[in-house]
Amino acid sequence: MEFSDSVKLARTDTGLEYFDVKSPLCQAKIFLQGAQITEFIPTGKSDLMWVSADEDYQEGKSVRGGIPICWPWFGVHENADWPAHGFARKVVWRAEQVTETSDAVRISLSLPMMQVDKQYWPHESKLEVEFILGEQLEVRLTNTNLGKSPFSLTQALHTYFPTSDIKNTTVDGLQGAKYIEFGEGPFDQSDKVGFARETDMVYTQAAPVQSIHTPEGVIEVGRENSTSCVLWNPWIEKSKRLSNFQNEEYLGMLCLEAANVLEDTVTVEPGQSHTLSTTVRWR
């Protein structure tokens, strides 16, 4: 099935459907399960998304890489039996619109609320995501309150980025922010961040743009309607416990996630919307 000159619907050997984008400006793959982008290659440049070599693309299981959508909560819920990072990344989303212009392919999907377990999310709402695929990638996650009472949520666009050497990779632009790590803090971030151990920093009061300096070049990561973000690398021991993750793959990836967490939790009033967005590009 083709949606435009550059977009067709394809399927993995395991049966998962995805949008296969091959436009003059970029290549991309966006899975209907989880509305998860796993590839974004600007023309003439390398992939901005990282995916584990052990990923097997199974139904009901989030892909280890790309941009999983953590919604409507980030991390472990206070109810320990509920799924970590919410449920949106494991549900099959509905394709809403595909358009193509000279400067971008736009693909919109929505989360079918009929599939949502009311014990997890009893609110009347709409959740949509739009991917704007051009020389850079923009992802826009929009919550709309269709009910009569406000609701609150935490969320993240859990972006996995590639690097050829995590030990020679740094993140700039977090100076001045505060972070909590392993339940301790808040601490002040005063310098660039390097990697020499397991890293799981949840930042607040963060500037809207960060840059990841890798041996391959600089990746610029921007956020809108977000003053929080998460920086993660599992390092040696945790890598051995992760599913769909090779023991040494921590050396070639990191996550820098646009988020609404902690003091940046979102409350959406009746009839209102909130859009969390992230933009990534090679600089």
UniProtKB/TrEMBL annotation:
Source species of the chain: Pseudoalteromonas luteoviolacea H33
Assigned protein family: Belongs to the glucose-6-phosphate 1-epimerase family.
Enzyme Commission identifier(s): 5.1.3.15
Alphabetical list of InterPro entries matching this protein: Aldose_1/G6P_1-epimerase (IPR008183), G6P_1-epimerase (IPR025532), Gal_mutarotase_sf_dom (IPR011013), GH-type_carb-bd (IPR014718)
EC class name: isomerase
Pfam families referenced in this protein's UniProt entry, alphabetically: Aldose_epim
Protein name: Putative glucose-6-phosphate 1-epimerase
A single GO molecular function term of this UniProt record: glucose-6-phosphate 1-epimerase activity
Catalytic-site annotation from UniProt: 158, 257
Catalytic reaction list: alpha-D-glucose 6-phosphate = beta-D-glucose 6-phosphate
GO biological process: carbohydrate metabolic process
